[in-house]
Design brief:
This protein is α/β, with parallel strands linked by helices and 332 residues long. It is 45% helix and 18% strand. It folds into two domains: 171 residues, D-Maltodextrin-Binding Protein, domain 2 (3-Layer(aba) Sandwich), CATH 3.40.190; 117 residues, Periplasmic binding protein-like II (D-Maltodextrin-Binding Protein, domain 2). Strands 1, 2, 3, 4, 5, 6, 7, 8, 9 and 10 form a ten-stranded mixed beta sheet that branches. Helix 2 packs across helix 9, helix 2 runs antiparallel to helix 10 and helix 4 crosses helix 11. Pfam families: TctC.
């Protein structure tokens, strides 16, 4: 019959082995990572600007990671549906979120936000910045910004201002524009910038703020009216295009920034390997050429870190919170 001391020793050894397995499981996962496809969730419709960035990067990252990076579109609720999905996903290194400024604006926009952007995710890296452009339908009477300003003041709420949904950067840009020009235009929400831009091309709406990743080809082709860029200074892809600030809207600056997030407690080795593949992709000649053609701007290496993203997210949250609250815009 087994003695009490022997039984105790065996139980102690079993507890030790169980604890060791629990401790080493994430490490073992990371060492063999990745062994299957990785999902990169885009919180907006396919064909939109963020989707373009995601798919451009995913193709190159697939090669360096040795596993397919699958882009999955989960549009709705200003990106909060996708963010909530990723927050609840298994923290195994196989689900990531690419999101823009919406991660910083959601706390002010949503009364019942089901996650905290600062604490409920692993912050992986910033990605890329994209300037915004102010556009009008091709048959809009105005041909430059001074004429557009006069037209907006004359038409008032008859002007239809499209945006990609509550909290989208096109929504924020339109909000700042309305405040800057003092015109209470009628806003028309869409499920993503892709559908909003198609509405502009089809003449169903009058004006739209949208990213250069989507608008540059159309601006050069003349299929839309172009009134200026929303950056502090002129951009390389449209060097002759004036900024809205230099045309009278002092301090007007809205730039789309993107970040990569993972579920909380995703193994650090996994996120670091994903981030390394991202950094390599951002230097790939194909990606550089494609993003440069579309007007995207590459961020400094210091921002391509968890700390860089975390700090920037905090800064942007503090910037946009008062703007949104003063506008009285919110959703349940």
């Amino acid at each position: 019959m087994m003695s009490t001391s022997v039984r105790f020793a065996r139980r102690l050894a079993l507890v030790a082995l169980t604890s060791l397995a629990t401790f080493t499981a994430p490490l073992a996962l990371a060492q063999g990572y990745p062994t299957k496809a990785i999902t990169l969730v885009v919180p907006f419709a396919a064909g939109g600007p963020t989707d373009i960035v995601a798919r451009t990067l995913a193709g190159v990252m697939t090669k360096s990671l040795g596993q397919t990076v699958v882009v999955e579109n989960r549009a709705g609720a200003g990106g909060t549906l996708a963010a909530g999905h990723v927050m609840r996903a298994a923290p195994d290194g196989y689900t990531y979120l690419i999101h823009h400024n919406g991660m910083a604006t959601a706390p002010a926009l949503y009364r019942k936000l089901p996650y905290n952007p600062q604490t409920d995710f692993e912050h992986v890296s910033q990605v890329i910045d994209v300037p915004m452009t102010l556009l009008g339908r091709k048959d809009l009477p105005a041909n430059n910004f001074p004429e557009l300003l006069a037209y907006m003041k004359a038409q008032g709420d008859k002007i239809n201002l499209a945006h990609a949904g509550l909290g989208a950067v096109s929504h924020l840009c339109g909000m700042v524009l309305r405040q800057a020009v003092g015109v209470d235009m009628t806003t028309v929400p869409y499920q993503g910038t892709g559908p909003a831009f198609q509405a502009l091309l089809g003449g169903q709406v009058d004006i739209l703020c949208d990213q250069t990743t989507q608008t540059t080809p159309h601006i050069k082709a003349g299929t839309v009216k172009f009134f200026g860029v929303t950056t502090a200074s002129r951009i390389k892809v449209l060097p002759d295009a004036p900024t809205l600030a230099e045309q009278g809207l002092k301090g007007f600056e809205v730039v789309v920034w993107h970040g990569i997030y993972a579920p909380k407690n995703t193994p650090k080795d996994a996120t670091e390997k994903f981030a390394a593949a991202l950094r390599a992709a951002l230097k790939d000649p194909t990606v550089v050429q494609r993003m440069t053609e579309l007007g995207a701007e590459f961020v400094p290496d210091a921002k391509l870190t968890p700390e860089g993203l975390r700090s920037w997210l905090k800064q942007e949250t503090e910037r946009w919170g008062p703007v949104i609250k003063s506008a009285g815009v919110y959703a349940d």
